[in-house]
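Dear Dr. H.,

I hope your travels went smoothly. While you were away I took the liberty of generating a structure for the chain from your last submission, since the lab meeting agenda had it listed for discussion. I wanted you to have the full record in hand beforehand rather than looking at slides cold. The sequence, exactly as received, is reproduced here:
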Amino acid sequence: MSQNTYNSPTRRGTSARRTGVAAAVALLLAGGLAAPAAVALDRPAAASAPAAHDQRGTLLSVTRVAVLDRAAVTRWLTERQVDASGVRHGVTAYRLTYRTPDATGRPTTATGLLTLPTGGAHRPDLVSDTHGTMVHRGYAPSVGDDFGRIPSYLNASAGRAVAAPDYLGLGKGPGTHPYMDTASSVTASLDMLRAARHAADRLGRPLTGDVYATGFSQGGQVAMALGHALESGADRHFRLRALAPVSGPYDGPGVEFPGLFDGRVNDASGIFYVSYFLVAQNRLHPLYKDPHDVFRAPYADRVEALFDGDHTEEDVFKALPATLRELLTPGFYARMQHPTGTLAEILKANDGACAWKPDVPVRLYAATGDTDVPIGNARSCAARLRAAGVRAPVLDQGSVDHFGSLKEAAPEVVQWFAGLS
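The corresponding predicted structure, in token form, is as follows:
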């Protein structure tokens, strides 16, 4: 599910996995995360914008963070080994700051990236792109100028506007990220669509209201749940047109959690996801009173601080052990294999992303080579949709790793969306 250990640690041997993850993160830090010089457009929302300070999706500020012509977009994607043959336009990207509730319903703010094509239709359709797992707030799409922007630049350069939420607690938003709390991620994503609509109006590129939803990893699950919210009438300004999530962890109880113990999920990624999940969920639900109830020493004394939004993935991997058995107490290790109580309730609450009947075309992208989010998640989602009467093909991207599934699938998603127009 991680979007910053992009070249997922799938090689045999703990040392090799650790080295691969550290190298990938170091490469990101050295080569891609320096944001381009920003041209500030921060100012109070226009008088025509909603006046209520607590209104969801109220636009607070717009800051231009990137301007790329067509050649620059092509070069940017090619440098990241992404097919750039669909590039038709340059792009301009903006960081939006907007109002939204936090995971407990209290008012807060969040940020996200709005990317507009420099050509194409005056009133473009809108793509919602929800990103994968991130621990450092600086990796979020509106801040980090690297892999988190691949779907934004692909779709915008093909002629559509793209709204990519940072989620709560990432980017320039306050607090910590409630990782794998699908409900609050959907809320932040929906409110990002609202903020994008207001910003696009102000920037002279009003939107049609048609929404094409995609997302990667954690964001694949969010995309499916956001689609459900849109089809249920969450906002009258938006009409869902298609769903194309990539490598989402749709089936926690049936695939992702069992995969931690049967080899389908590699050890290095499993430790990362489990520690992030337990710490983040305990901030919302009473999973444990003391970290020592869940984590072994010395990890119990450090694990919560690792997920404050200011540590990098490299920091996290260096501070954690090689296996789940080394990380978790014997009792909680057993509980993870057979979830009960609050843990089971959390998994159930996050397990309904595919339990509905979309009235739009759906494609599920995944990869047999993925050992972060096994392809069984997509097959499980397809089975649920099929039981509801919806045919959603699983498009296997082959032997590539987790991030490789995005690099392969993202250009295909752009082409499919174009064919549906």
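Two observations you may find useful: The radius of gyration is 20 Å. The longest strand covers residues 91-101.

With kind regards,
E. W.
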